[in-house]
Structure formats: structure tokens, C-alpha cells
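step=predict obj=Isoflavone reductase (NADPH:isoflavone oxidoreductase)-like protein n=294
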Amino acid sequence: MTQTVLIVGATGMLGRRIAHHLVRSPQARVRLLVRDPHGKKEVLDPLAAKGAEVVAGDLSDAASLDRATRGVDVIVSAVQGGPEVIVEGQVRLAEIGKRNAVRRILPSDYALDLFKATPGEHTMFDMRAQADARIAETGLEQVNVLQGGFMELFMPGKGAIDLEAGTVSFFGDGHRPVEVTSVEDTARMVARAALDRALAAGKFAFAGDRVSFRQAGEIVARQSGRPIRPVSLGSEADLRALMAQADPHQQVMLAYLLYMTNGQTALTGLQNDRYGDLKLQGFADFVARQGERS
């Protein structure tokens, strides 16, 4: 059966990939909510050419959300931002969607298991958990997509791995594995989940791989042919001390490191095999393909 899917945040890194996969499905009618239908033509025009309906609207504008959610079965959110977007905007979208008989929403979670985080330690996790709790109060069914970290963030130049210095840096001993998934595979799974009427509400967790900081360094070293030396920046206590002194932006980044270090928000109950024809890419294959493209 064909379902109408509204995608919010469709011009972002993940949202555009979700839209790309949904417009290819004969089971989906795709609607894109964007602030400026005439902007980002390099993203929107190819999607519109494949049948996506582009509508103007904003999460702060209730009237536009009312128009956008009429006739919609499923909302997929891939928005980023502060509390006015992640909390107030998504809750407003859910409330109006519920009034218009939307069946399900996939909020913009896309992380490690944010529901296991200690309140007050991770601002972004706090906002998403608050939004999800308030969406639940509306009675709108929700699926919380949890894919771990994005593999792209483990690549050289993104943080931990420095090819020029020949190091991979971490807190702790660097041996704890972290769940990671590529942006592309996340988008493919989200597109399937959006149309999967049998998928139970609640956490939908999957991961392309489990890889530690040390293993990531070893894999990149093999693929690049350049030595990479593991460097510990200190203990978990040292990391927490840095967080206490950091500015809000730095605190968010350090909080991600905290949960990668202590494993508190590790994913469980992975549903990697829910869609048998969709094989998730491991980290070594991902790095190899990135090398082929560069």
C-alpha cells in the first residue's frame, strides 16, 4: 500500500539521503517541508524530478505545519538545531500531525542510546529525550532510530584520527567498541522503517559495525599505508573535569566522547537483519571505499 511520507530536514546531510531512497520506492509518496522551496536547488530539483512534492513551511509556523501534514501517514524528521527546533519545533509538528491523523513519526534521534544517558550530561541527548517524551504525550506513535555514531566522524580530519600527526586520540584505554553506521546505510534503514507498518513503536536500533578507537586507527592505517599511534588523553575522570570547564559547544562534543568511553549509551537489541536484502557496511569496507573515491 502506498503511504505519504513527510520529510522535515530534507536538505541536510541525512535528510537528503533519506529522501533519495524514499522517492525510489513505489510504496511512497514523498513530501518535503522546506523553508525556501526555491533554495538548495541542487538538492531539491532532483528529488522533485522523481516525484517529491516540495512545500514551504517552518517548524515555528503552525499554519504551514497544518498544511504540510494533511494526508500524511508518516513523518520523518532529520532536523538539527537548538531546543526551539529539536524540542518545541518537533513537538509542534507532532501535535499538529496527530490532529491531522498522521499515524507515526520518526523523530530526529539518530544517535547512541540517548535514553540511557544521565540527565544533564549531554545537552543534545537531553533535548531529544525531552522531545520524545512530549511527543509520546500526544499519542502519536513514534519510532526512535538509534544507529550509534556516524562512520564519517571516525574518518581522518573529523576528530580522533590525525593522519599528519600519525595518531588516534581517545580517553580511557581506547579498547571499548562503539556502534557506528554510515550515513548512507542509516538513510536506507530509515527509508525502510518509515514504510514498515509492522515495525514496532519504540527503539529501532542497528549498527553497521562495532569498532573501538584503537581498531579505527588500525583500519585507517592499513588502508592509508601510514602509521597511526594510539594516544590516550586521560581517564574518564580527566574527561569529566574537562567537561566541567568547557563552554557549551565543547561540552556537547566532550559528552559524545564520554559515552563512547564508558559505554553507558551502547546500543542493544540490534535489528540489523530486519530487512534481509539490506546489508550494512562494516567500517573497514567503508574506509576502503572512501579511499577509492579520494
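step=describe
The chain has ten helices and 13 strands.
step=end
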